[in-house]
Amino acid sequence: MLIVQDIVEDSLGWVFRSQITRDFGIDAHIEIITEKSEATGKIIAAQIKCGESFFGESNEDGYVFRPKTKHIRYWLDHSLPVIVVICHPGTRECRWVEVTSENIVSTGIGWKIILPFGQRFDVTHKHVLSQIAGRTLAERIRQRYKNRLQLAPIIDDRIFIEVIHRGGILMGFRRITQSDYRALALSQDYMLYQSDSFYDLETWKDILELSGVEDWEIEEALGKAEQEIA
C-alpha cells in the first residue's frame, strides 16, 4: 500500500488516507487536490493489492484480478467511485481499473476484472482519475450500471414523480424510439426505476416542470439523454 501512497502524494500531489480500521474491500481514500493546493472533497475509494502474484494471470487485454464475491456488491453499491489497484513490489509499477458492472465478469464460480496493461497508476492518468472523482452521484450510478439500466423496473408515471420528490434523483433518459424517451430515476434507497410512459424531451421538460422538479435537475438530466435507441 505504501507504493500507492507514494504515487498519490509525490507524483499526483493528492491526499492519501489509509483505511486503518476494519475494511470490507476498501483500503484507502484518495482526495483530489487542485494545482493551488486546495482540497476539493472529490474522493476515490481504492482497493489495493500488492504482490507479484497479482501480475501472474493475464489475457490479451490486461492482468486478471479475481475479487471476492462479497466485495462486488459492496463496491457497486458504494457511494464513492471505486478503483482496484495492483502493485508489483519489485518494479513498483501499478495498474488500475474503475469498478463498474460493465467490467466485472462472472466466471460461473466467481468473478474477474481486467486491469489494462496500459493503464498505469501514475501521473499519466491523473486527468482521468480526476474526472472519475468529479462525477456526480447520478453519473456514477449510470456508469456503474450502464448495462443494467434497461432492466430497471418500469413504474407508473405518478409513482415515478413521487420517487423524485421523496429524495430521489432524476438521472436521465433512455431513448426508446427515434424521438421518444423513458425517464430514469434513482430512489433514496438506491433503486433504479423507469417511467411507464415515453415522450420526446421537450414534453418531458414540460411534464417535469409542472410536477415541481427543480429546473437545474431537469437540465442536467436532459444533458444525459441517451442518443442510441435502447
How does this structure look, described?
With 230 residues, the chain is an alpha+beta fold. It contains 7 helices and 12 strands. A 5-stranded mixed sheet has the order 1-2-3-5-6. A 4-stranded mixed sheet has the order 9-12-11-10. It has a 3-stranded antiparallel sheet with strand order 4-8-7, with no helix packed on it. Helix 6 runs antiparallel to helix 7.
Task: Summarize this entry quickly.
The protein is of the alpha+beta class and 230 residues long. It has helices spanning 2-12, 69-77, 126-133, 137-144, 157-165, 201-210, 215-222, and strands at residues 15-18, 28-33, 39-50, 62-65, 82-87, 94-98, 104-106, 111-116, 154-155, 169-175, 181-186, 192-199. The protein has a five-stranded mixed sheet. The chain has a four-stranded mixed sheet with strand order 9-12-11-10. It has a three-stranded antiparallel sheet with strand order 4-8-7, with no helix packed on it.
Describe the SSE topology.
Elements (H helix, E strand, L loop, with lengths): L1 H11 L2 E4 L9 E6 L5 E12 L11 E4 L3 H9 L4 E6 L6 E5 L5 E3 L4 E6 L9 H8 L3 H8 L9 E2 L1 H9 L3 E7 L5 E6 L5 E8 L1 H10 L4 H8 L8
Parallel strand pairs: 3-5, 9-12
Antiparallel strand pairs: 1-2, 2-3, 4-8, 5-6, 7-8, 10-11, 11-12
